[in-house]
Each structure stands twice: as structure tokens, then as C-alpha cells.
Write a structure and sequence with these properties.
Layout lengths: L1 H31 L6 E9 L10 E9 L6 E9 L5 E7 L3 E7 L6 E7 L2 E3 L2 E3 L4 E5 L7 E12 L7 E4 L4 E2 L11 E8 L7 E8 L6 E6 L5 E2 L16 E7 L14 E12 L2 E17 L7 E8 L10 E6 L14
Parallel strand pairs: 1-9, 10-21
Antiparallel strand pairs: 1-4, 2-3, 2-5, 5-6, 6-16, 7-8, 10-20, 11-12, 11-13, 13-14, 14-17, 15-18, 18-19, 19-20
Length: 337
């Protein structure tokens, strides 16, 4: 009898303990959530490259909301398909922002970016229900290409032009196994210490008449994952590009060599006959060319390139599953089209 009573008492005590713990946990969880925040509404409009609405696209809208007692934020996520007018709308609480993205079979994913609401009025965010337009690019003709994310390649010497072979993905001999100078890099720098005044430049030139490079602007975090135009331009290539970085004086800011939204198309291995181009190879550089003069006696080079292997073919739609460069390290592998 006493044994049964003791067991019953222990069971009741254990039940009470877990009830108290659960109540405390629930209370703490509630404390992590911010009080009710203003409501926002937003519409994503999905169009194709001809500005026509796309129906049946899967839109994701995340309303950003903060948490008390925890670092960072969390998302209140809404998903749905676009109608015949290409739109999908959602409404929820938010601290100030909403982000959008869209997918559809046979198309590249598009990121609509983060929309910041401007003002609170009567418990909701203004503007009420703005429309964010997103272009969904179709997967048309992805092809095999030479593609590599060049990470920390050491420029062999300073003050002399050094060729880089895009097919071999290496410096030309005697500095590497390359044989064709597709891109020619010349480094100049005056550098003692990062805290002191310095200046450095990296010049890109080419081997053949008609070779060259030209910039193209594309934001890195908004828009289609197929970021750049579908075809390289036929003309407009310049024979030289200069990237520079410097610090004019102690305690002054460093002027960076790169711009976040800068990308390039290039033309190499150009052959002319009777002043007409009869052969050339086209390619693109995803994001800017960068170089690091601090962590090397010369400089470390950073750029991501794609080279179409077919002469005079300007298609820039890369198939990541058919890279013509093999044996790349994980950090060198190109996964974007």
C-alpha cells in the first residue's frame, strides 16, 4: 500500500514537473516573438523576356519579421501560382521588408530582391500592395563551355605581360601549361603596408586585332540566375581594360578595384581576312575582375569566366552539367548558367 502510494506520488510529481517546464518553455517562446507588427501587402508580377505575363509560375513571398531575445529574423512565407495576368499577391505582418522569388519548370529561377516599405499608417505598411515585376527567362539552349571560377591564382611576375589560356585554364609557358594568350595581364604596384599610401593597377590586353572586352551591368543579387544577356555582342570590344586600387594617404579609405554590378563580355582568338572577322571565340566574365596585392608578393587574381568553344558562336547560355574543364576543385566549379 505504501509502495503504491509512493509510486503514485512520484508520478504526480513528475507530471507536475513536466507541466511547469512546458509552461515556462511556451512563455519563453512567446517572449522571443515581437508584438504584433504592421501588416503589409505586396504583389509579384511575372513576365517573360517579351514583357508578356506568365501564368502558372510559383511565387514565394517572405515577410521579414524580427525576434526578441534571438539574433536575426525569421520569415513568414507565402507561396502560390500566378494567374493569367502573371500576378500573385500575399499579405502578412512584417518589420519593414518583403522578399520575392519565382520558379517555373523550363525556366531559370528569378529573385525579386527585398522590397522595403516606406511608412506605417493605421497599423499597416505603405505603400499598400506595390507591384514588383520579375522577368522569368526560359531555358532555351544551354551548351557545353569552358567555365571556371579562378580563385587566388598568383600572377607570376610584376611589370610584365603574362598570358592566360582560357582553354587550358592556366598561365602560358613557362609559367603554366597554356599555349595561347587569350587574356594578357600586366600588374603594377607600389606597396609596403596596407595602412600606408599605395597604388596598384592590373591591365588586361589581348593578342590579336579584333580581340577585346566590354562591360555589361547586372545586379548580383536581384533578377534571373541567368544574369547576363543571352548572346555576347557582335561588336563594341575594346583592346584594353585597366583595374586599379589605391590609398592616397594614411587613414584615408582604400579605393577598391571592383564594382559589384560590373560584368564583361570578351572576344579572343580573332582571325581576320580582308579586314573581316572569319573566326573568333566569345565569352563572358561573371562579376568583376579582382586582384589582391596584400597577400602576395605579386597579386592574387580572381575572376569567373565562360568561353563558348564554337568559333563565331555568341550563345552565352552555359550548361553546368557539361563543363569542358574537368578536375576542378569545388571552389572553382561554376554552377550558374
Amino acid at each position: 500500500m505504501n509502495t503504491s502510494a509512493s509510486r503514485l506520488g512520484s508520478l504526480l510529481a513528475l507530471t507536475l514537473y513536466f507541466s511547469v517546464v512546458a509552461a515556462i518553455h511556451a512563455q519563453q517562446k512567446q517572449e522571443f516573438l515581437l508584438p504584433s507588427q504592421p501588416t503589409a501587402m505586396i504583389t509579384g508580377k511575372v513576365i517573360d523576356e517579351s514583357n508578356q505575363p506568365i501564368s502558372g509560375a510559383e511565387v514565394t513571398i517572405d515577410f521579414l519579421i524580427g525576434q526578441i531575445g534571438s539574433w536575426g529574423t525569421r520569415d513568414l512565407t507565402h507561396q502560390g501560382q500566378t494567374g493569367s495576368d502573371g500576378t500573385f499577391s500575399a499579405s502578412d505582418q512584417t518589420g519593414i521588408a518583403a522578399s520575392l522569388s519565382v520558379t517555373k519548370a523550363g525556366h531559370y529561377k528569378t529573385y525579386g530582391g527585398r522590397y522595403l516599405f516606406k511608412a506605417k499608417k493605421s497599423g499597416r505598411w505603405e505603400p499598400w500592395n506595390p507591384t514588383v515585376e520579375m522577368i522569368l527567362k526560359a531555358i532555351v539552349n544551354p551548351i557545353p563551355m569552358y567555365a571556371r571560377r579562378v580563385e587566388t591564382a598568383t600572377i607570376p611576375v610584376m611589370g610584365k605581360p603574362i598570358g592566360f589560356d582560357l582553354v587550358e585554364s592556366d598561365w602560358v609557358a613557362p609559367h603554366g601549361k597554356g599555349s595561347v594568350s587569350d587574356l594578357i595581364f600586366t600588374l603594377q604596384k607600389t606597396f609596403v603596408d596596407v595602412e600606408k599610401p599605395f597604388e596598384a593597377s592590373l591591365t588586361v590586353t589581348f593578342a590579336n586585332e579584333g580581340d577585346g572586352i566590354q562591360p555589361t551591368i547586372a545586379a548580383p543579387h536581384v533578377g534571373s540566375e541567368f544574369r547576363l544577356p543571352r548572346y555576347a555582342p557582335e561588336e563594341g570590344y575594346e583592346p584594353k581594360l585597366v583595374k586599379s586600387t589605391s590609398r592616397a594617404a594614411v587613414n584615408q579609405m582604400i579605393i577598391p578595384a571592383t564594382k559589384e554590378d560590373l560584368n564583361y563580355f570578351f572576344r579572343v582568338r580573332t582571325v581576320k581576312k580582308d579586314k573581316k572577322i572569319v573566326s573568333a571565340y566569345f565569352g563572358k566574365i561573371d562579376r568583376d575582375i579582382d586582384f589582391d596585392i596584400i597577400n602576395s608578393d605579386t597579386a592574387l587574381l580572381f575572376f569567373t569566366y565562360y568561353l563558348n568553344p564554337t568559333p563565331l558562336e555568341r550563345n552565352m547560355e552555359f550548361d553546368p552539367k557539361r563543363n569542358l574543364l574537368t578536375g576542378l576543385k569545388d571552389r572553382e566549379t561554376v554552377t550558374n548558367p
